[in-house]
Structure formats: C-alpha cells, structure tokens
Amino acid sequence: MALPLPPGLTPPEIAFLCEMELVTVIPRQRLEGLELLGGPSPPLNPPHRTSLPLWLALLLKRQRRANIIPPPWLSPHSLTAILDHETEHADAFSPPPRLPSPPPNNTLPFSPPFLPSSTAEAAPDALPYHWLELGEMLLEAAADDFEDPDNVRKLLRGLREVRMAKLRKGVGVLDAGGGVRMNGVGGMEVGEGRAFVGGVIDGLRKIAASREQQRKDRDREERENGYSGTVGDDDDDEMDMQ
Amino acid sequence: MGSYYDVDAILTDAQKVPCTFELTVPGLGYVEGNMSGDMKQGSKVELPLWLGETLALSQSLNTSSMVTLDPPSALAPRVLNALKADPRTVDLRALAPHFYNLGARILELFEEEEMIEVLSETFKARASVIADQAHNPRGALGEGADFMRGLDENERQLFRAAHDSAKGVRNWMADLKKK
Fold this sequence. Notes:
The structure holds 2 protein chains of 2 kinds.
Chain A: H1 11-18, E1 22-27, E2 35-36, E3 39-40, E4 50-53, H2 54-62, E5 66-69, H3 76-88, H4 131-141, H5 149-169, H6 187-207, H7 209-224
Antiparallel strand pairs in A: 1-4, 1-5, 2-3
Helix pairs in contact in A: 3-5, 4-5, 5-6
Chain B: H1 7-13, E1 16-21, E2 44-48, H2 49-57, E3 67-69, H3 77-85, H4 92-95, H5 99-109, H6 113-135, H7 145-149, H8 153-178
Helix pairs in contact in B: 1-5, 5-6, 6-8
Protein name (chain B): DNA replication complex GINS protein PSF3
Organism (chain B): Lindgomyces ingoldianus
Protein name (chain A): GINS complex, PSF2 component
C-alpha cells in the first residue's frame, strides 16, 4: 500500500460528502438561481422556504443571508425518543428512514444521498445516513436556529456513545462466517469503526487460516471427485488476506 | 502470508521453538554450547522457527526427518488453560511478542482444532477491551495500564487503528469549532 492514508474515508471527507444533503432555508435576501454543476439552484425569495445543498446553506448562513430550519429528527423530542429506542434494544440500531415507494418503471429510484432526508419535511422518527455530521455542522454554524441547542448537543453525544458502544460490542459475535447487523449505521460511524472492525476480522482470519485452508482443500478434492457439494460459494474464500 | 519484507513475519519466524534431534550430527554441538562436540541424538534444543521448520520437514534420502518440533512454551496447554479461564489477565507480550502470528504459524504445522478456538475467543474478548481503552483517552494510563502492557504486536496495531480513528473524529469536531 503506497497510500499514506488508511482505507476508507477520513472524517473531513465524510463531512464533505454530507454537504451535498439538501436542507431547508428561509432566505432573508433575494438571490437569483445559481447555475451549479449539480444543477441550477432555485431562486430565493424572502419569506418562502427553499431546499438548498448544505454547503450553500452554511455559506448563506455565515453571511447572514438565510436561516436554516433544522430537520425534524434533530429536535430534542425526536432525539429523546430515538435514544430511548437505542437503550431499550441493546442488540440493534434504530432503523434508518423508510425508503419512498419505488417510482414508475422508466425512472431511476433515488437512494439516500439524493433523498430529502434532512429537509423540514423529513421523517421525524429516524436518523438518516449523515445524522452525526449534519447535526454537528448545523449546531456549529446555526446554533441560533435551534430552539434548545445545548439539549440537542447533549442528546447527540449520548446517541453517539450508545451506538459506538454497540458497534464495539458487535465484534464479540464475529466469526469467520458470522456477521453484525449494521442496519441504520451512519456514515461517520462507519468511518470511525472501520479500522477496528476490519482489524479484528483480519486477526480472526489469520488465526483460523489453517482451518480455512483445510476446508478449501477438502472442497477442491470433493469437486475433483465429482461431488457437486458446494459449488459457487467459494468466491468469498478468495478474498485477499492482509 | 504477508510480504517478503514484512518485519512482523520475519520476527515471528525468529521466535524459538523446542526441537528434538533424531540423528547425531557431527560438529553441530556449538548450537547447544558444546563448542567442538557433536549434536547427540535425542538432545533438545531451542531453534528459531524458520530453521526448525526446515529441518523437520526436510528428509534426506530415506531416513526420517532430522528433528521433531514441539509446540513452543508460549502455546503450552498451561497457557491455553489460562486463556480459557480469563483471556484478559494473561500477559501475551511476555509469552511471545508476536503471539497470534506465532499461533497461526504453529497451526500451519500442527492440527489443533482446540487451539484455533481458544485463540479466536481470546482475540475477540481482548479486542473488545482494547476498543474500550482506545476510546477512553485516560484508559491507557489508568487502571488499564497492566493490560495494555501485555498486548501482543497484532493487538497493539489494533489499538492504534481504533485510537487513530476515534482521534480523527474528535479532531474533526474540534476543527468545526475553530471555523
């Protein structure tokens, strides 16, 4: 590996990706629509709410040209409910937002980065993929748009702790063929847990390498002798081991 | 397994394993400290893994192999029992700096289903403690200090990886505040 960085994304890169999320703003000044690479942005007319990408919304907020409406799941009430759910269900993460019903045949379905999961119309009872990054950035740049920023900050910290503890505990059930249910884990959490979880799996595979080799030999022998026992499931055995 | 220049693989192969000579070798007494004598049949010597393995596997003509290997003391039944009882209190570094790598190499040579189980369970149990220590900035100096000193090389890398990613996120949050 010639790259100096570990595999995966660094926290600033994850935050950069998060800045593509749409958020709802209330403009304070008129602004013509901008021709952006990702498509034209809607023109801003003061009292009307508009959805803008997070990076543009933060820029306008810093220039005091707009206010950001925090998404409904970032309210103390929703966060408390989600936190309760997390502490009650010790073995699963709180579920991600439901996907909308699939569109008619000849259009492509939207997947998370392009779904409005952080606008004012988002579902109030689920954490979207970029919950931690978005929450932290909004609290930093637009704390005055929250009703109770300190409480929200505290709840976000609590959620982060509970969920990271779950992720760490998940390695206890890992095995050569085991898995952890990671539905609903956010981008920053994946980035933070990747190095550790990957390291544990590599270590376990190294220890069990001889058993794996034996099984592979046995499978090959069986196949050569004409038994068609386990055809097609050796793709995952070929994974390169570091 | 691993690249030719992998320092950890080289150091693993340099660890000593007990070997018993099956033949009398003239002039090899210096390995035992007997400068001018012969290596007697049946004498037990600690040889590096790479040398012991080669000697044990090589067979000249139709004689038996030159030495027989025994599992090293770091993987003796006594140690495995201690790991079964409580993986967290064993000082792996004192047993062998590359404990798991040594285990994996030995398992290539011997068939020991139970050892695979014990080592996997140990690694998992200790990994969760390592993760907790890595996320707790004072952990490495407080009550966990003894445990941290007993980590083998693999576990140290794991600790470093977990610690660095937690630090990365913390730094990012601190950078946000500076803007």
